[in-house]
């Protein structure tokens, strides 16, 4: 009897062991499956506006009214009324927008129909009776420095400088604005550029301007371009009244580099790098000067010219980038 029971129980143990092993295996698969499902659920759920009752809270228009904290849109345009209409229609829907200043440098004044259209857009988009002010800043001479002319009667400190051919969603604009409020002396923008010492010249006072690819490759930048940036309004008056006139003359003559000049000015004041904010760029026009050949060489010339004016290189590079923590998955 005993041996038989022994054999039997040994078989039982063996069977149990096999069952146990496959149970472990299948439970691992189940666990993996559960994790995957959970992960997918979180990814999908986080895309819905209200996730587990945690709202993605956007700042309401009241918030801006109560604290009188908003910004002025300073939009640079040139003979592209259709783009201007599209941009302004878009930006008027962003909370925090207080006034719009169109930098107009064409020989002809804005047409009646354009003015009417824009006024209508601004009035129809007014939220809670919040009236957005719309003004044309008309310039006789056609100079790139026009975009940084002082704007009279600006109630608020923040200026959002933008070209007529790029659109950022309001969420990106709000993010940049809140970054600017944390660092109101800094230039805060979406389009970073870099400079570096020209090693080939063997001279530490010669620099090279680096475009988008250079920033992408190195992860570093030392300027944010004024075609999409927040800055304090005081820099407008400094650009026109305090910056060496030779720099303004140079940008007018060469029809380039007013944005580099502004970056130099701010860096000279703050002694700190600008701040790059992540934003979704939507370019609606495609005929900017940056698409022309020889652009980088001209920009390099500007950098070296301005370094000579300042007697030193004021730009400071960094690799910091501000993002919305609600859009980043893992800490
Ligand atoms: C740079 O800033 C200093 C003061 O911090 C000022 O004296 C100087 O004029 C500025 N340079 C230029 C070229 O604006």
TrEMBL record:
Ranges where the Glycosyl transferase domain occurs: 71-322
- Any one GO MF annotation of this record: glycosyltransferase activity
Transferase in keyword set? yes
Q: Which InterPro entries did the record assign?
A: GT64, GT64_dom, Nucleotide-diphossugar_trans
Recorded GO cellular component terms are:
endomembrane system; membrane
Keywords assigned: Disulfide bond, Glycoprotein, Manganese, Membrane, Metal-binding, Signal-anchor, Transferase, Transmembrane, Transmembrane helix
Keyword Glycoprotein carried by entry: yes
Name the needed cofactors: Mn(2+)
As recorded in UniProt, coiled-coil segments are: none
The record describes its membrane topology as:
Single-pass type II membrane protein
Where does the protein end up?
A: Endomembrane system
Which family does the record claim for this protein? Answer: Belongs to the glycosyltransferase 64 family.
**What is the name attached to this protein's record?**
Glycosyl transferase 64 domain-containing protein
The organism encoding this protein is Daucus carota subsp. sativus
